[in-house]
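User: For my dataset I need records formatted as: sequence, then structure tokens, nothing else. Please produce one.
Assistant:
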Amino acid sequence: MTLPPNVHDAEPIPAAAREAIDALMQSGDLFRYTAAQDAPVSLLEAEFAALLGSKYALAVSSCSAALFLSLKALDLPRDARVLIPAFTFAAVPSAIVHADCIPVLCEVGDNYRVDMDDFAAKLNGVQAVIISHMRGHTSDMDAIMGLFDAQGIPVVEDAAHSLGTTWHGRNIGTIGKIGCFSFQSYKMINAGEGGILVTDDADLVARAVIMSGAYEHNWKKHKDPTGADDPDLAEAFARWQNQLPLYNLRMSNLSAAVIRPQIPELGRRVQDGLANHDYVAARLNSSPYIEVPEPLTPERRAPDSIQFNLVGLDEAEIRTFAAAAETRGVKVQVFGLSPDNARAFWNWKFLPEQVELPQTRNMLMHACDVRLPVRLTRPELDIIADILLASVGEVIAPIKAFGT
């Protein structure tokens, strides 16, 4: 019997990272503000801003921290209403609650993207928006930006799953006012933990830098990543000195040393991940009981997992499918059926306003998630696809037999 591949391990960390870590260990210089200049975190911020085509970047402890700081940097009033898709990770509404704001959930369709009709219907009274490109599926950013730019409502992009994804050729995370990314282990760049935000707004990044933990005059070590004099940034830092609370959400030099050597690998990882995804998607779509949603036309994805809907199966049959796949060695997460799943909105008991969203609930009860690390080979992808198709076959065989 051929064993299924290990889908939990990421690619090895490049040797250059190990060398940089050894140097840091020798120096003990792990704090981002010890060096007068060119600390690893500062270099990462400059490199990441250049990669995305953004003016500023701020590296922090997690994408959740980046989202929280984004809302605080926007200077929203207490109890401001922040609109989000109902299909997202619990960290997103949590960041909103931490920022003393109220999450407002909107419906999501079977393609895992924002339902624009429900989105527009909930616009009244909203003071900010977080768009979660959940599992790398990009919502219609043309429609979203047209809707909210007209109202002057700031859009924050939760691009935790979308590093390397483009929309009309533009990097996801640079379309809204602020973009937030993750370096958690199951992302395109792996530091175990870590996050970064990007923006072109000097005032927003200055506020975020200070609140991230740039106490006293450490904000002076944050400069325009291009090295140019930036009077707007200098003025913003001076304006907010000692005016804002410190939340101490900094990234350490150790994390930056792990991340920086992976940046040159991103292009290859995106290419490999997309090829892997589309190969498995084509195989799964050969079954009438499995549907992998198509990308939107302007979207070029950067996946390291695959999501698909089970079509025409009831809850008992879906559970049988997931159990059959797990027995064969492939773990399938059915978002709405996995106990206490942090992506199922009804498990967010901390929300100040509990709502029911039948369309999103129905989608989550049929939507499946399987890891597809970019390092997998074609034979390994075939094993995964074979197992998923065989598991569906195990469920539908009794149905066909009963119906004949």
